[in-house]
């Protein structure tokens, strides 16, 4: 029987699809010589349906795998010896002409040994599922189709492929037997890819025949039904099959690379699933990898079997595999989808609240979204540039960003000066500072690294390990990021105030005005990088906090984790931010309790804000707990950057000026007046009052903290108030924007002309705020980012100090008459992060006594102590005190050393240096807290990420 065809139907709990499948088999226009059916332990009426249609059915247990069922069917067909085997699933319904098209293609191409049909989705019937299939280097099943692509004949050409789905696969019986059937190690998924790959290396040709159509429900893949083989872990079986297929079929020379790549890729995929809160799939990914890597003999045995049947070089199969760049494109697509989902979630708050209000009596019914037609979408795509050029707001935003980047030109290269200390050589220095529990700075200290060191280390690592690039990116992008965040926040606030939302020109004014706050405040020019970052981050925190008003409790909890994570980042750079958030939270809870009695009884109402506040001390525990135990509690009230911090009076706070490098103060006064005038329109008076309450809380906190004086070992400073000034300015911007929205919506009749006159005057004043600030920034403003301070230490001493922590340099400044101060330099000098550690470290009184004895009555014993303390050089920078220098010249054990400046004096300590001079104890508490912090960040990131259902979307 040279052209005979036998159909092999495998069923398992497919009663819902089998009637259509049976009818599809009976209606084939090409003759089927015999139908062999194998039922794998169906609990419904599947076996009876098949038996009634085709006679006998082979009933086996539910633990029978698909390859075993196919092998059993081949045994039943051994006597008939058909030329072709047509494999069908119980959820795969062929069109009447499917088999005829497959046989016609086989006749046209005698070399074709395996043929597959076009698979379309069942029951939608038009959506394409597969036209042949291949596999990427990461194990992804690739079809070459877009997600949700419809069949319009765009892929209707017969072509060679790596593999075809077993649902409708027509294969020569001799080839199936030659290759040993389907691999029993692939019980349900992936056996088609493996079979096609083995067929290709054995010299057989696989083609796809689009003229043959089979409708496939993909019941097992989509989880519509469960079998004893898959259970609840469908993804585990799919991923294990993909990894197995790659490992047993890859070229031998690529196997070591493939093992490492798949292991590393699995870790990344686990992280990705955790980010979208798919914990089950993440665990399945990890379990699949462990299952295979713990059984290397299974992989090696399968590779030997394939090698024995190989007649084609493995490299010749490469064109049938997915391109090497495809996994990276999928990774970018995934990141894009994740970012898009994350940025759009909080925006839904206003929409959902309006929908809830609309469903109430008199609300006009639920809002119905209007979807654009295909013509509208095509027209939109072709007119993007034209609409951009004719949209003043869009052009204004683009011009604003460009000018802001021009104004930030001072940060395009290495920056230092003002409050910004020199940056370390690489990100590794920040990582070391973060994980150390004892720092070899000065005479050694256990004061923890500032909390901002971790995010800076992460950013620098992502940017190639360059701290200069990380700090430059922070300063350059502060204004654009703040603009974006303020736009999103004001847009949602506008929709909460009125269904139509705020006009785009008003959003432009408000977001541009706020985005310039870190610049006009002087924080940017003074190198107050912490204030700059929290200013850019604040609208994002506020945007996330709007989720607390969402009607859905689950969304409120998710908003809590997002807000907590962002608030943690802000608090790392400005610790006062958490205190302000806590006070503001108490005020809001008290007000809500007074207005809506009984609302606070619901845990899902007060729980999310409390959780957001509670996340911060947990994630920052490696910083604040050691700070308290090491006597550095002042760190909880200090801003990032060099000390002392600038002092702010009432006028500075009102105008938002935190440094003398800020823009003219009248810009801030105009904004304050605009926010005050925003109380006039009745329509928006309540939300404007809310903004003023926020501003009042910031002012009260600033007044209280302004009374605090912190006496540190090296200086005296006040508490960090810069964040409170930024928060107050943000509240004033929002109040002014809401008031303008109310002014535009209120008034009618005879008052229209008066209202318009007032609006013109107010608008003219309002425009001067962002225009004046931007012009001041672009022209040059004031900045200290190129200030460099000469340490007065000879270069050869600096090089020697880089040899180890024991090669310290004792630097003594001043004179006997006015007082002397000393510092100890080790390594590459004091860099960003280290300066705050030293500032918070208490005085080492024992070493102070040694230095006092050195400058007063130096003796050989004092010099010996310098060696034990790890001091190699003593330097008196210009102008050196003559009396002190004379005493050191006459001291045994101090050898005069050269200095670049004649008025600078230096000596080398001629004593053995103690290599463990600045060593200290290891803190297991900090190590435990670092582990807690890392785990906490991962958990919170997973909880705040948007939820996706990838299987449902597939």
Automatic annotation (TrEMBL):
<feature type="transmembrane region" description="Helical">
    <location>
        <begin position="924"/>
        <end position="945"/>
    </location>
</feature>
<feature type="transmembrane region" description="Helical">
    <location>
        <begin position="393"/>
        <end position="412"/>
    </location>
</feature>
<feature type="region of interest" description="Disordered">
    <location>
        <begin position="350"/>
        <end position="376"/>
    </location>
</feature>
<dbReference type="Pfam" id="PF13641">
    <property type="entry name" value="Glyco_tranf_2_3"/>
</dbReference>
<feature type="transmembrane region" description="Helical">
    <location>
        <begin position="569"/>
        <end position="593"/>
    </location>
</feature>
<keyword id="KW-1133">Transmembrane helix</keyword>
<feature type="transmembrane region" description="Helical">
    <location>
        <begin position="663"/>
        <end position="681"/>
    </location>
</feature>
<feature type="transmembrane region" description="Helical">
    <location>
        <begin position="688"/>
        <end position="710"/>
    </location>
</feature>
<feature type="transmembrane region" description="Helical">
    <location>
        <begin position="605"/>
        <end position="625"/>
    </location>
</feature>
<protein>
    <submittedName>
        <fullName>Glycosyltransferase</fullName>
    </submittedName>
</protein>
<feature type="transmembrane region" description="Helical">
    <location>
        <begin position="496"/>
        <end position="517"/>
    </location>
</feature>
<keyword id="KW-0812">Transmembrane</keyword>
<dbReference type="InterPro" id="IPR029044">
    <property type="entry name" value="Nucleotide-diphossugar_trans"/>
</dbReference>
<keyword id="KW-0472">Membrane</keyword>
<feature type="transmembrane region" description="Helical">
    <location>
        <begin position="529"/>
        <end position="549"/>
    </location>
</feature>
<dbReference type="InterPro" id="IPR050834">
    <property type="entry name" value="Glycosyltransf_2"/>
</dbReference>
<feature type="transmembrane region" description="Helical">
    <location>
        <begin position="722"/>
        <end position="745"/>
    </location>
</feature>
<dbReference type="GO" id="GO:0016740">
    <property type="term" value="F:transferase activity"/>
</dbReference>
<feature type="transmembrane region" description="Helical">
    <location>
        <begin position="472"/>
        <end position="490"/>
    </location>
</feature>
<feature type="transmembrane region" description="Helical">
    <location>
        <begin position="757"/>
        <end position="779"/>
    </location>
</feature>
<keyword id="KW-0808">Transferase</keyword>
């Amino acid at each position: 029987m040279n052209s005979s065809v036998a159909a092999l139907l495998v069923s398992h709990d497919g009663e819902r699809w089998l009637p259509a499948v049976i009818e599809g088999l009976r209606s084939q226009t090409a003759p089927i010589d015999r139908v062999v059916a194998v039922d794998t332990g169906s609990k419904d009426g599947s076996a009876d349906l098949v038996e009634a249609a085709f006679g006998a059915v082979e009933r086996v247990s539910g633990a029978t795998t698909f390859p075993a069922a196919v092998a059993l069917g081949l045994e039943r067909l051994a006597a008939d010896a058909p030329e072709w085997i047509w494999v069908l699933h119980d959820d795969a319904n062929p069109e009447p002409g499917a088999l005829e098209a497959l046989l016609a293609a086989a006749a046209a191409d005698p070399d074709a040994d395996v043929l597959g049909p076009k698979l379309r989705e069942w029951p939608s019937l038009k959506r394409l599922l597969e036209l042949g299939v291949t596999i990427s280097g990461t194990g992804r099943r690739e079809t070459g189709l877009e997600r949700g692509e419809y069949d319009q004949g765009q892929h209707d050409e017969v072509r060679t492929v790596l593999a075809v789905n077993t649902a409708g696969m027509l294969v020569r019986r001799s080839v199936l037997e030659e290759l040993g059937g389907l691999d029993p190690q692939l019980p349900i998924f992936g056996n088609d890819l493996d079979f096609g790959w083995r067929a290709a290396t054995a010299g057989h040709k696989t083609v796809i025949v689009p003229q043959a159509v089979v409708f496939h429900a993909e019941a097992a893949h989509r989880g519509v039904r469960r079998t004893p083989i898959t259970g609840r872990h469908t993804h585990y079986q799919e991923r294990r099959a993909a990894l197995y297929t790659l490992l047993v079929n890859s070229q031998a020379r690529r196997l070591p690379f493939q093992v490492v790549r798949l292991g590393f890729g699995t870790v990344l995929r686990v992280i990705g699933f955790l980010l979208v809160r798919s914990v089950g799939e993440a665990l399945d990914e990890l379990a699949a990898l462990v299952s295979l890597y713990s059984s290397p003999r299974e992989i090696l045995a399968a590779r030997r079997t394939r090698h024995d049947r190989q007649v084609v070089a493995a490299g010749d199969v490469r064109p049938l595999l997915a391109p090497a760049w495809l996994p990276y494109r999928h990774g970018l697509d995934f990141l894009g989808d994740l970012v898009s989902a994350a940025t759009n979630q909080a925006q839904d708050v206003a929409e959902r609240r309006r929908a809830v209000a609309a469903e109430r009596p008199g609300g006009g019914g639920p809002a119905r979204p209007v979807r654009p037609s295909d013509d509208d979408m095509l027209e939109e795509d072709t007119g993007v540039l034209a609409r951009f050029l004719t949209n003043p707001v869009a052009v204004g935003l683009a011009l604003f960003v460009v000018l802001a980047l021009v104004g930030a030109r001072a940060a395009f290269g290495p920056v230092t000066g003002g409050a910004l200390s020199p940056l370390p050589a690489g990100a590794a220095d920040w990582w070391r500072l973060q994980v150390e529990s004892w720092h070899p700075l000065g005479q050694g200290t256990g004061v923890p690294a500032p909390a901002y060191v971790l995010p800076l280390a992460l950013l620098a690592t992502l940017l190639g390990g360059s701290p200069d690039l990380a700090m430059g990116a922070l300063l350059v992008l502060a204004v654009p990021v703040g603009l974006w965040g303020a736009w999103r926040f004001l847009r949602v606030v506008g929709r909460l105030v009125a269904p139509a939302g705020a006009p785009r020109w008003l959003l432009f004014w408000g977001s541009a005005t706020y985005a310039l706050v870190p610049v006009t405040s002087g924080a940017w020019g003074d190198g107050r990088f912490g204030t700059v970052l929290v200013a850019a981050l604040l609208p994002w925190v506020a945007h996330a906090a709007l989720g607390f008003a969402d009607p859905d409790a689950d969304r409120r909890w998710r908003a809590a984790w997002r807000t907590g994570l962002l608030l943690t980042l802000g608090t790392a750079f400005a610790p006062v931010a958490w205190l302000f958030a806590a006070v503001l939270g108490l005020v809001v809870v008290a007000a809500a309790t007074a207005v809506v009695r009984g609302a606070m009884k619901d845990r899902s109402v007060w729980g999310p804000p409390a959780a957001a506040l509670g996340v911060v001390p947990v994630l920052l525990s490696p910083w604040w707990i050691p700070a308290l135990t090491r006597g550095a509690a002042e760190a909880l009230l200090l801003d990032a950057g060099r000390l002392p911090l600038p002092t702010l009076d009432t006028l500075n706070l009102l105008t938002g000026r935190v440094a003398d490098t800020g823009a003219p103060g009248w810009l801030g006064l105009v904004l304050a007046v605009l926010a005050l005038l925003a109380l006039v329109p009745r329509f928006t008076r309540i939300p404007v009052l809310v903004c003023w309450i926020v501003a009042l809380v910031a002012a009260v906190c600033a007044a209280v903290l302004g009374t605090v004086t912190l006496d540190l070992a090296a200086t005296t400073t006040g508490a960090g108030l810069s964040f409170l000034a930024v928060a107050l300015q943000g509240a004033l911007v929002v109040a002014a924007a809401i008031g303008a929205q109310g002014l535009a919506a209120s008034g009618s009749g005879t008052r229209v002309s008066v209202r318009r006159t007032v609006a013109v005057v107010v608008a003219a004043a309002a425009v001067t705020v962002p225009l004046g600030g931007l012009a001041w920034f672009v022209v040059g403003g004031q900045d200290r980012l190129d200030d460099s301070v000469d340490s007065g230490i000879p270069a050869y001493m600096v090089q020697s100090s880089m040899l180890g922590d024991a090669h310290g340099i004792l630097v003594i400044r001043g004179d006997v008459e006015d007082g002397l101060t000393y510092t100890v330099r080790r390594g590459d000098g004091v860099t960003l992060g280290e300066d705050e550690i030293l500032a918070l470290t208490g005085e080492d009184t024992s070493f102070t006594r040694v230095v006092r004895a050195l400058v007063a009555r130096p003796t050989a014993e004092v010099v010996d102590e310098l060696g034990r303390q790890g001091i190699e050089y003593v330097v008196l920078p210009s102008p050196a005190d003559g009396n002190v220098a004379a005493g050191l010249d006459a001291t045994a054990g101090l050898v005069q050393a050269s200095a670049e400046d004649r008025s600078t004096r230096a000596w080398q300590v001629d004593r053995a240096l103690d290599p463990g001079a600045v060593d200290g104890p290891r803190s297991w508490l900090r190590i435990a807290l670092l582990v807690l912090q890392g785990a906490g960040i991962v958990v919170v990131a997973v909880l705040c990420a948007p939820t996706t259902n990838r299987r449902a979307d597939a």
